[in-house]
Task: structure prediction
Amino acid sequence: AQSVTQPDIHITVSEGASLELRCNYSYGATPYLFWYVQSPGQGLQLLLKYFSGDTLVQGIKGFEAEFKRSQSSFNLRKPSVHWSDAAEYFCAAFNAGKSTFGDGTTLTVKP
Amino acid sequence: EAGVVQSPRYKIIEKKQPVAFWCNPISGHNTLYWYRQNLGQGPELLIRYENEEAVDDSQLPKDRFSAERLKGVDSTLKIQPAELGDSAVYLCASNERGRNGELFFGEGSRLTVL
Result:
């Protein structure tokens, strides 16, 4: 079955520290891949997307993600986290007309 | 440009009561989605519309859930009767045809069933 897994339910980082959120997918073929962010009480906002080509993609708010086919991964990174980055982050895969979301990683930022 | 608009933002009802949620997508977006998001989980698709046609409703519990998008613009999702397990956030999303997987979400409607 097609699935998206986010192994970390909750991550805490200090403000100014670097961040990496993990995402693994299980599909027969490489799907389109996305990262979304959800602040409390809000809908999801698209951070970045990967369709093909360059495996390092840049997004909004200083985020980037790297696609690694050999590891079936699409990890999200940010060099220096700001307090406003505290939110829930969802990885998603799109294939054959359907989007499948992971269960999310909650990011807490310590001052 | 206005985003995806949903109402109500919050709804508390007794079990067995009906409830309806409304969504107005971004202007020009042909595709409209309803998702359910349970606490601590990612969104799960309930139904997808292309214009006024429901092209994927395989995950919609049709015994109690119904949806419509009569003129291919705004949409309504109804639950009748509601059960305790229906407590969740109901998210509406839209996108333009061809923008595969790039979804624009509303703020959601949080339903609590007592």
Q: What stands out?
A: The two ends of chain B are 37 Å apart (CA to CA). The interface with chain A takes residues 4, 40-45, 48, 55-56, 91, 93, 100-108 of chain B (CB under 8 Å). Chain B has a mean pLDDT of 94.
